Structures are given as C-alpha cells and as structure tokens.
Amino acid sequence: MRIVAVSKRQPVAEIQAACDAGLIHFGENYVQEAVEKIPAIDSAAVWHFIGPVQSNKTRPIAEHFDWVHTVASERIAERLSAQRAERQADLNTCIQLRPANAGQRHGVDEPELPALAEKISALPGLRLRGLMIMPLPNLGEAATRAEFERANGLFEAMRNAGLAVDTLSMGMSADLEAAIMAGSTCIRVGTDLFGARK
Ligand SMILES: *Cc1c(COP(=O)(O)O)cnc(C)c1O
After folding, report:
1. DSSP string, 119-147
2. Please, what's the b/e burial string for 75-93 (b: 16 or more CB within 10 A of its CB; e: otherwise)?
3. Where does residue 161 rank: exposed (0-12), middle (13-18), buried (19+ CB within 10 A)?
4. How far is the CA of 69 from the centre of ligand 1 (A)?
5. What is the pLDDT of residues 114-126, one digit of tens each?
6. What is the pLDDT of residues 26-40, one digit of tens each?
C-alpha cells in the first residue's frame, strides 16, 4: 500500500517535517502552489499531481511531477507526453474515472477508458500505471463502496486486457477504509496526516 501525503495548502515546513519523518510521496492539486514548494523540499520526495489537469497547465506538470493521477483525455495525455523532457524518467500516469452520476465532473466514463488506456500506453514519456477515482462526497457508505468496487473491476479488466498497470489510486481521509477493502493500492491522505488545511 502506497500512502500519498496530500500536502496541498500545507506550508513547506510541515511538508519537510513529514518528509523527515519518513513520508516519501506527496500529492498536490494546484500547479502554481506546488511549483513554488517543490524546490524547497528534500529532493528525495516524489510528487504526485492529483488535481484536475487543465491544458494550459500541462507543461509545469510534465516538468515538475513524477506522477499524474488525473488524466482524462487523449489531448491532455498528448500534451504531457510532448512536454516531458527526454532526460526525465517517464511520467507515471493514472486515468481518472468520472464518478457515477457526477455530471460534468473531471474524469472519463467507462466506454472511453479502453481507448485512452491504449493511447497512453503508446505515448513516449508516459507510463500508464492505473486508475484513480474520487467518489462524490457524502454518498453514504454503501454507494461509496460500490464506486470503489466499480473502479476495482475496471482496473482488473485493464490487467486482463494485458496492460501492465499496478496502481488503483483511491481513498482519502473520509473513506480510506472502504477503499482499501475494495482493493486500493494507493491512498491519498491529507487531513488525517497533517490536520485541517489552513
Ligand atoms: C484533497 C484531496 C485528497 C485528500 O483529502 P483529505 O480529505 O484531506 O484526506 C485526496 N485526493 C484528492 C484528489 C484531493 O483533492
């Protein structure tokens, strides 16, 4: 189980302290905020972009992050691929699933998933690692669990299709137990680690 410490809106000193205490993986949602903090923190830290990816923000994401959990279109994947420098390791990439009944929220719907997964697998500079989902808040326990199980089923289908995926990114402070029970390999925890955000 990987723990991504979600450090959005946490100051550099708090993040460095978490790093000194042994946490390695950090998650950020806001590009501008992250690019200011990243150089100030121990270079052993591994940075995960977990916010919605806007097309005008792909370049700093490709430059500064090790992971992106929230790719939801071929256009964004192509931009990240083109902007990832050759001297850098491949950008670890997860596809974000749109939650059920979520209107226009960020993410791909199930029918679009296989083509996007194939696309990312074929793009230089990106390495497809798996899926991410963030259920709508306050769904209740049963519906939240159902969302995680749906994601796990799609993740298994990707593996069965021969994709070398190993990451199912799901679970935050409020729902991490349900996510782990449903097969999460990567929880993204902010509040439970750092306390309430400022
Ligand atoms: C903020 C955030 C988290 C962490 O939320 P907590 O409730 O503080 O644990 C996890 N994932 C994403 C995508 C987030 O935006």
Report:
1. HHHHSTTEEEEEEEE-PPTT--HHHHHHH
2. ebbbbbbeebeeeeeebbb
3. exposed
4. 12
5. 999 999 999 999 9
6. 999 999 999 999 999
Pocket test residue of 30, 106, 188 for ligand 1, highest count of atoms within 8 A of CB: 188
Encoded amino acid at 118, one letter: E
Q: How far is the CA of 195 from the centre of ligand 1 (A)?
A: 12
Helix, strand, coil abundance in the chain, percent, nearest 5: 40, 20, 40
pTM more than 0.90: yes
Instruction: With CA atoms as reference, report the closest residue to 47 among 89, 1, 78, 13.
Output: 89
For residues 12 and 50, give the distance between their C-alpha atoms in angstroms, rounded to a whole number: 18
190 φψ region: left (φ > 0), alpha (ψ -120 to 50), beta (else): alpha
16 CB neighbour count, 10 Å cutoff: 15
93 closest CA partner among 75, 81, 111: 81
- 3, 4, 6, best to mutate for ligand 1 pocket (most atoms within 8 Å of CB): 6
